[in-house]
């Protein structure tokens, strides 16, 4: 385990997330997700976690491993068209992971998701948290519109649009 990573997680409590993402900021992200989902058959969920628990750090849990766990816990995979997309931010690491369900992932591929993550992480490093997330949502929206457009089909909201802060 890296000492610097351990210290970042120990000192990155939920209060740091509240500083970076105000109530207004979380509402703006929720609105961006709702607007996005009106144009395609996908579902987007943004989850930000302040830090990993000590046990997870000692086990060497990576942001990707934790994102996969959150994807399952939040049931992002449970959509009619298998088009759920999780944007997971591990705040202490400033690491963004996108986990997409098999319906959309098969059409988009890992390289596109990785590029979106890199763009979001660049904004986060610059301290532009809300902008980074909203731009990420816009890039994901473009993929979902291309591969799963709404086209006047019934489009229920299957996953909550509100950001989840863990």
TrEMBL record:
Gene3D superfamilies: 3.10.310.50. Residues 21-142 form the TPM domain. InterPro entries: TPM_dom. It comes from the Bacteria. This is TPM domain-containing protein. It comes from Methylomonas defluvii.
């Amino acid at each position: 385990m890296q000492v610097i990573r351990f210290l970042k997680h120990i000192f990155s409590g939920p209060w740091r997330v509240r500083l970076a993402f105000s109530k207004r900021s979380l509402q703006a992200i929720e609105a961006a997700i709702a607007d996005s989902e009106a144009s395609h058959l996908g579902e987007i969920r943004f989850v930000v976690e302040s830090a990993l628990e000590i046990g997870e750090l000692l086990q060497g849990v990576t942001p990707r491993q934790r994102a996969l766990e959150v994807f399952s816990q939040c049931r992002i995979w449970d959509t009619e068209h298998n088009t759920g997309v999780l944007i997971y931010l591990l705040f202490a690491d400033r690491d963004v992971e996108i986990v997409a369900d098999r319906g959309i992932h098969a059409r988009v591929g890992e390289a596109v998701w990785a590029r979106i993550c890199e763009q979001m992480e660049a904004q986060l490093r610059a301290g532009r948290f809300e902008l980074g997330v909203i731009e990420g949502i816009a890039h994901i929206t473009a993929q979902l519109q291309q591969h799963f457009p709404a086209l006047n089909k019934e489009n229920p909201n299957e996953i909550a649009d509100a950001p989840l802060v863990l």
